[in-house]
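Hey all, quick one. A colleague (J.T.) asked me to put the beta,beta-carotene-4,4'-dione job into the tracker so the inputs and the structure tokens live in one place instead of scattered across chat threads. No bug as far as I know, just bookkeeping. Sequence used:
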Amino acid sequence: MSLTIESAQNIFSKTQVPSPIPATIALFDQLGVDDQLAYLWFAYTEMGRTITPAAPGAARLQLAENLLAQIKQMSSEEQTQVMRDLANRADTPISRSYGFFSVNTKLAFWYELGELMKQGVVAPIPSGYQMSPGVQVVLEATKKLDAGQQITVLRNTVVGMGFDTSSLGPSSYPKPVAEPAFERTAPIVSSVKIDGITEAAVLSYIEAMNADNFDAAINLFTPDGALQPPFQKPIVGRDAIAKYMREEAQGLNMMPKQGICEVQPDGSKQLKVTGVVQTPWFGVNVGMNIAWRFLINPQGQIFFVAIDMLASPEELLSLRRV
Ligand code: 45D
């Protein structure tokens, strides 16, 4: 029997606990645009009193420089309108340019805008803004999340802003830009150990990812293999996975701790591994509890891997299917 991505998506589904992250984002989505911006500002600045993201490198900011320069020259009203347009995913020139940014460039853009708002160069929350009760509800929900979940909510809302450029034809695409490198925040550990796991493809995958060696990681996949990031659809095929990894998986520090492996009658293996991942944006200050669900084919290649955000630290240890 041949493996399918659809069936692979469901491996270990009985061990999964729904994450509070989509529920929080659903509450956020119901807010009006000024409330959304106010919520994000409060969540970001409140969080920043204990954990702040690392400043993006000069090469990264360079990619957002054109937009930031335009915004700096605007009146306060125009600046506020730009932010509303981004949150509304409006079709404006700035919102389109933003829509073409990679995830990390979107984050760097907002990082810089936040700094400019603190300096008074860019308009803060509009004067006379009255917070609706809905904002308080989303803030309370956000407070109950751990730090890894909170930064995921912020990241996902930032990613969702701007005009949805996937609806545009290829002719409107700007020239592709090289993704600047992220500095590693942790030394590379070359001998990966995971309790309960001896599968070479899994150990090699972690080792390669922790060295930003995406070519080595990609070669562990079958040509039709897939990678499913948290809350996303599977990314299918080596080229697509490679592109994704270069854009979004740089500088990650993966610390898998334990796992289980079940051999299937056809010789394929299903593995679930849990552990902690750190993003270069927050380094050792924020740990994200995650699971990898691997489907390895009988030849020892990765056919599928899903990355899931865990609902709570308890879930790190609940690997059994029953
Ligand atoms: O004024 O094995 C707001 C994969 C608006 C690869 C703002 C992975 C208002 C395969 C926007 C709030 C990648 C899938 C201002 C593993 C406002 C694999 C500014 C997993 C100023 C393990 C807000 C990786 C700002 C994972 C600046 C799970 C917000 C990676 C900044 C997760 C927020 C990475 C930042 C995460 C958030 C990174 C920098 C969650 C970064 C989050």
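Adding what we noticed when we looked at it: DSSP finds twelve helices and six strands in the chain. The pocket of beta,beta-carotene-4,4'-dione is lined by residues 37, 40-41, 44, 53, 107, 110-111, 113-114, 117, 151-152, 154-155, 158, 209, 229-230, 248-249, 252, 254, 277, 279, 281, 288, 290, 307 (CB under 6 Å).
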